[in-house]
C-alpha cells in the first residue's frame, strides 16, 4: 500500500497532491509529514525535487494528512 497520489489542475496551474491512505496505519508508515520535511529541505540544494506547497494535518479536510 502506498500514499495515494492525485494530479490536480486549475486553469493553467498544475500540481500533485499526496495523502496518507484511509486505512489503519503502522506508527511510522506513510509519514507524509516526513516526506514534506525532506522535500522542503531539498529546495535550493541542487538535488532535483518537487516544491512542496503545503502540509495539511487536519483530518477533517481530506480524511488524512496530505501535502
What are the salient characteristics of this protein?
2 strands, alpha+beta, two-stranded antiparallel sheet
Span of the ends, CA to CA: 18 Å
Average residue pLDDT: 88
State the order of secondary-structure elements, H for helix, E for strand.
EEHH
**Share of residues in helices:** 10-25%
Taking all Cα atoms into account, the compactness measure Rg is: 13 Å
Task: Specify the number of helices.
Answer: 2
Task: Give the secondary structure arrangement, pairings included.
Blueprint: E1 5-10, E2 13-18, H1 32-42, H2 59-62
Antiparallel strand pairs: 1-2
Structure, explained:
This protein is an alpha+beta fold and 67 residues long. Helix content is 22%, strand content 18%. The protein contains two helices and two strands. It has helices at residues 32-42, 59-62, and strands spanning 5-10, 13-18. It has a two-stranded antiparallel sheet.
Briefly say what this structure is.
The chain is of the alpha+beta class. It is 22% helix and 18% strand. It has a two-stranded antiparallel ribbon.
